[in-house]
Specification:
Length: 346
Amino acid sequence: MSKNSKPFKIGILTAGGDCPGINAAIRGVGKTAIVKYGMKVIGISDGFAGLIHKEYFELTESHLSGILTLGGTILGTSREKPFKSSGKKKDEMRKPMLIKEHYEQMGLDCLVCIGGNGTMKTAYMLSEEGLNVVGVPKTIDNDIWGTDMTFGFDSAMNIATEAIDRLHSTANSHKRIMVIEIMGHNAGWLALYSGMAGGGDVILIPEIPHDEDVIMDYLQKRAENNKPYSIVVVAEGIKVPDGEESPGRYLARKIQEVTGLETRETVLGYIQRGGSPSPMDRILASRFGAAAANLIAAKDFGRMVAQCNGEITSVRLSETAGRTKLVSKDDPMVRQAREMGTCFGA
Ligand code: F6P
């Protein structure tokens, strides 16, 4: 109950890049809040922009039915960064102060922020301004510090793995090298996991700086050993010469130039962010959503729900804000792949 013993009124927003599972998370928060705690739930449109412009509506149970399997977010999203400096000193805190004012005018007792790293940082900064906030981590990148897994990742991994599977058959038919560029921002989790699941011969991730000569030698040796084709899985965040628009396109061109082996590229792009969530993501998103509602009921604010060793728990936003979870060079998956002959370019 809120301070004057009225049922809690909570706002939910979704911010940053979308991913499969966000609607399952909205449903998890909303249904738990309404059914278990009798709370009132407000849906805020387009991330933090909706709080700045007061665009919101009541989320009733009818809004929440039929959305478990829906891709994207019924609330819309944006990459609005309220604390990002506009350059003019006087405007510095204009947006955060508007958000605080509208939060109070809306009579919210708590704000649930469903988003990635940037969203968790904004959520933490708003909590420092006195708002009650709970974070729900989502991203296909799985790069949020403090949780083993984010929903969105499993669905994107399935999509990327299916794409790699399909490339094997066409690579084999044409005896080609196929380069596939995978999303993941500055982390290599999605490329590593889909590369392993898809049987990538070369897997390049930002956390392991690569040497092009090592890649070329490895591919040449495979061809000399009568391997009819090779699959090169490239995380979008790897370093390539300045001005190159896409690591995948750049590497495909370089491989063909240097080795003479016929090479083609596929940049998977936003397909990895679309469509219905996998069953695993539906479950994780629902569990995260319910955990967020439970934190609110317990007035345990300023925290981000998380999964640690399979258990649903929570961490302080102050601990996770601004931190990114990257692949360790000694990650067991990297070690095992190397032992099986996979090339990481170094
Ligand atoms: O964070 C999710 C993500 O898809 C990243 O993997 C990718 O680099 C980025 O978003 C793309 O951002 P945008 O949707 O703004 O183009």
